[in-house]
């Protein structure tokens, strides 16, 4: 269950990052509320996953899912630039996540 909690927490990190962008500095109520609820849920699920996963593994995977997911949302939803260097950087993050998962005892 820890990996499921961690995956959902990572997806919620993408949600709160996107909704924070949409809140325009917390000046829009709807996206601001989505940001806060998704943040709380993400942190709670991260905390649950840390009951059985090592800190370094859980935190690295959580931030990696959020970073790569936010990068993809930026490109596909917000129309941000997708050049070769940014794509290679995202692939390196994904590679690090795979290695972290493979090296985890849980």
Describe this structure in words.
- This protein has 106 residues and is mainly α.
- It has helices at residues 2-22, 29-49, 55-76, 84-103.
- It has one domain (2-103).
- 79% of the residues lie in helices and 0% in strands.
- The chain is flat and about 45 Å long.
- It starts with a helix and ends with a helix.
- The mean pLDDT is 95.
The outline comes out as: flat
Number of helices: 4
Helix fraction by DSSP (H/I, runs of at least 4):
over 70%
Radius of gyration, whole Å: 15 Å
GO molecular function: transmembrane transporter activity
Subcellular location: Cell membrane
Family: Belongs to the drug/metabolite transporter (DMT) superfamily. Small multidrug resistance (SMR) (TC 2.A.7.1) family. Gdx/SugE subfamily.
Pfam family, one: Multi_Drug_Res
Describe this structure in a few short sentences:
By secondary structure, the protein is mainly alpha-helical. It has one domain (2-103).
Q: Tags for this entry?
A:
106 residues
Show the helix and strand layout.
Elements: H1 2-22, H2 29-49, H3 55-76, H4 84-103
Helix pairs in contact: 1-2, 1-3, 3-4
Transmembrane segments: 33-50, 57-78, 84-100
Subcellular location: Cell membrane
GO cellular component, one term: plasma membrane
């Amino acid at each position: 269950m820890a990996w499921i909690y961690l995956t959902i927490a990572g997806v919620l990190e993408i949600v709160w990052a996107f909704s924070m962008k949409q809140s325009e500095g917390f000046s829009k109520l709807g996206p601001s509320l989505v940001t806060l609820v998704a943040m709380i849920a993400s942190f709670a699920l991260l905390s649950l996953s840390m009951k059985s996963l090592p800190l370094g593994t859980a935190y690295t995977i959580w931030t990696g899912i959020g970073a790569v997911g936010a990068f993809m949302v930026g490109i596909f939803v917000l129309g941000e630039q997708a050049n070769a260097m940014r794509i290679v950087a995202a692939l390196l993050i994904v590679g690090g996540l795979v290695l972290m998962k493979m090296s985890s005892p849980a």
